[in-house]
Design a protein that fits this description.
globular; alpha+beta; 14-stranded mixed β-sheet; 336 residues; 4-stranded antiparallel β-sheet; 20 strands
C-alpha cells in the first residue's frame, strides 16, 4: 500500500512565492510573517525579485522561513517591462537556508537589491550578463540554478505569455505554479492545469503548487491568501520541508483540503474537506467525477483505477469554484 496522504497526516500550509517592500511588495518581511501566521500558515518563502535574502532568522518553532528569490529573463537586454512581449519568471528555492547566490548575474536586472550588496556581497553563478531571452540561455540558467543548490519553479505561465512550445521545452523545473492569485486578479485566468497535462503528455512529470504574490490587504484586488501549497513534511524543519518538496509531497489548493490519498495496487481512496466533486484524471478526455446527485457535499471516494493511460492525478472542487489539485502519479510508481 502507498499512502501519499495518510489519514490524519500533518499538513503545513505554505506560500512559496511572495514579495515584500524589498522589491515590489508593500510589507516588510516582519509584517509578512505576522500576516501569514495570523492566517494559519506555517511556511513562507519570501522571493523578492532578483533579491536573494536569508530571512531564516525570522523562523520560530511553529513558523518556517524558506530562502529564495524570483529571477526573470526578458527580451529587453536592459530588463524593460513590455506589456505585449513574453518573459519567464522562475522561483529559486534554496536547499541550504543560507544560500543567497545570484544566478546569471546581470546588473541591468538588479532593480531592487542595492547594487553594492548584489555585486559584492552575493556569490555569482553561471553566465555573467547580458541575459538572453532564448531557449538555450533559459535552459542553461535553470541548469545552473539546480547545480547551485536551488529548486526551480516555473511561475505564472499565463501571465508570462511565453509561447507554449517554449514553455514545454524546458527541463529541470521541479514544479509548475498552477495557481497564482496575483495573476488571477489581473487577468482572471491563471489556473494552469491544462498546461500541466500537456507537460505530462510530453513525459515531463513536474509537481504542482499554488502561491500568492503581495498585499495590499483589505482591497478588492488583494492577492494574498487566495492560493497556497499544502506540504506533507514529516516535521516543520528546513531539511524536512525541502525533502518533501523534492519528493513531491505537496499539493496546490485555493481552499479544499485533501485528507487522504492512498493506493493499494489499482485501488484508490481519496478523502477531502466537504466538496461538490472529486475528480480522477487520466487525460483531458478521461476524467471520472464522484458527487452526490442532489448536490450535497461529498467527502470521500473509492475506486479501482482502470489500467490504461500513463498517469493519474486528482482534483477536488467546491460549489463556489475553489479547487485542489495533486501532482500526477505514474502507473509504474503505483505498482511498486
Amino acid at each position: 500500500m502507498f499512502s501519499y496522504i495518510a489519514p490524519g497526516a500533518k499538513q503545513y500550509r505554505a506560500n512559496l512565492h511572495s514579495h515584500t517592500n524589498l522589491s515590489d511588495g508593500t510589507l516588510t518581511p516582519e509584517q509578512m510573517v505576522q500576516a501569514y501566521q495570523e492566517k494559519g500558515y506555517s511556511i513562507l518563502a519570501i522571493t523578492d525579485h532578483e533579491a536573494p535574502y536569508d530571512h531564516t532568522a525570522l523562523s520560530t518553532d511553529d513558523f518556517l522561513m524558506l530562502t529564495g528569490y524570483e529571477a526573470y529573463i526578458r527580451p529587453s537586454p536592459t530588463c524593460e517591462f513590455d506589456l505585449f512581449k513574453p518573459e519567464i519568471h522562475l522561483n529559486l528555492l534554496a536547499k541550504d537556508p543560507h544560500n543567497t547566490a545570484i544566478i546569471g548575474w546581470d546588473p541591468n536586472f538588479c532593480k531592487y537589491m542595492p547594487l553594492e550588496v548584489a555585486e559584492h556581497q552575493r556569490e555569482h553563478k553561471g553566465d555573467l550578463g547580458p541575459r538572453k531571452y532564448s531557449r538555450e540561455y533559459i535552459q542553461r540558467f535553470i541548469d545552473t540554478a539546480r547545480d547551485s543548490g536551488y529548486l526551480v519553479t516555473y511561475n505564472h505561465p499565463c501571465w508570462s505569455m511565453e509561447a507554449e512550445e517554449d514553455t514545454l521545452s524546458y527541463d529541470g523545473c521541479f514544479s509548475l505554479e498552477v495557481f497564482n492569485t496575483g495573476s488571477e486578479k489581473i487577468s482572471g485566468y491563471e489556473c494552469n492545469m491544462a498546461l500541466y497535462d500537456k507537460f505530462l503528455r510530453k513525459g515531463k512529470f513536474l509537481y504542482v503548487h499554488g502561491a500568492d504574490n503581495k498585499a495590499p490587504f483589505g482591497d478588492l484586488m488583494c492577492d494574498s491568501f487566495g492560493s497556497w501549497t499544502q506540504i506533507l513534511a514529516e516535521e516543520l524543519t528546513y531539511p524536512a520541508v525541502i525533502r518533501a518538496l523534492e519528493e513531491g509531497r505537496f499539493y496546490a489548493t485555493t481552499g479544499p483540503e485533501i485528507t487522504e490519498l492512498t493506493f493499494d495496487g489499482s485501488h484508490v481512496r481519496i478523502g477531502c474537506s466537504p466538496a461538490q466533486r472529486i475528480v480522477v484524471h487520466g487525460s483531458p478526455k478521461m476524467g471520472k467525477s464522484f458527487y452526490n446527485p442532489d448536490g450535497s457535499p461529498i467527502t470521500h471516494a473509492e475506486l479501482d483505477l482502470p489500467p490504461i493511460g500513463e498517469y493519474v492525478y486528482f482534483s477536488v472542487y467546491t460549489a463556489d469554484g475553489k479547487a485542489a489539485h495533486t501532482r500526477a502519479f505514474r502507473w509504474a510508481e503505483l505498482a511498486e
